Amino acid sequence: MQSIVDACQNEGWPARVVAVIANKPDAAGLAWAAERGIATAVVPHRDFPNREAFDAALAREIDRHQPDYVLLAGFMRVLTSGFVAGYAGRLINIHPSLLPAFPGLHAPRQALEYGVRISGATVHFVTEELDGGPIVAQAAVPVRDDDSAETLSARILVEEHRIYPEAIAFVLAGGWTIRGRRVVRD
After folding, report:
1. What is the pLDDT of residues 101-156, one digit of tens each?
2. Rg for the chain (alpha carbons), in Å?
3. DSSP letter at 79?
4. pLDDT tens figures, 54-101
5. How far apart are CA 21 and CA 84, in angstroms?
6. Which of 5, 108, 151, 167 could, after both became Cys, cross-link 137 (CB 3.0–4.6 A)?
């Protein structure tokens, strides 16, 4: 989130980050955003009886800010199909693997357990299929023989901070279409 806000301001994007919304009140990004004058809100998922109720409350909070795009960063909740449909073509996420490999939680650990030699990060549009939406950008990270889940995660995170802002700038610039599971220039 911080790299996106910084890139938006420093690179003169034709956009601005209108709000940072978290489901955990202690999310570090909330204080960081508030210090920079960005609206913040918390919608605690534990306050709701089910995913549908939480997603409805989250959507109300998002819609209050009228964003063109909703960017997920460190948001570790599976969203309902109704929520995803409500933001179809406008909901973007980043995942710490070269999708379609290792969707879901603990992707770097999955990569190590499988024995791959290359892992990485993927920016993708969110669809109802978990980590299965059209790919905007990817970055490869070599897996070292002495890697742990933590060391691999740290190197992937460096690439996430680089490609997520680049991918968002690409999306904002327009001139692209979704073909199957790829986002391509027109």
Report:
1. 999 999 999 999 999 999 999 999 999 999 999 999 999 999 999 999 999 999 99
2. 16
3. P
4. 999 999 999 999 999 999 998 989 999 999 999 999 999 999 999 999
5. 16
6. 167
Enter the CATH code of domain 2-185. Answer: 3.40.50.170
Query: Tokens 């070292």, residue?
Result: 144
Write down the H helix ranges in the chain.
Answer: 2-10, 28-35, 51-64, 81-86, 107-114, 149-173
The residue whose two tokens read 């669809």 is 127
Please report, as a single letter, which amino acid is at residue 13: W
Catalytic center residues: 95
pTM over 0.85, yes/no = yes
Phi and psi at residue 34, to the nearest 5°: -60, -40
Domain ranges of the chain: 2-185
Residues 6+ apart with CB under 8 A from 7: 13, 165, 166, 168, 169
Tokens of 40: 């913040």
Continuous H helices in 36-136: 51-64, 81-86, 107-114
Please state, in angstroms and rounded to a whole number, the distance separating the CA atoms of residues 21 and 23.
7
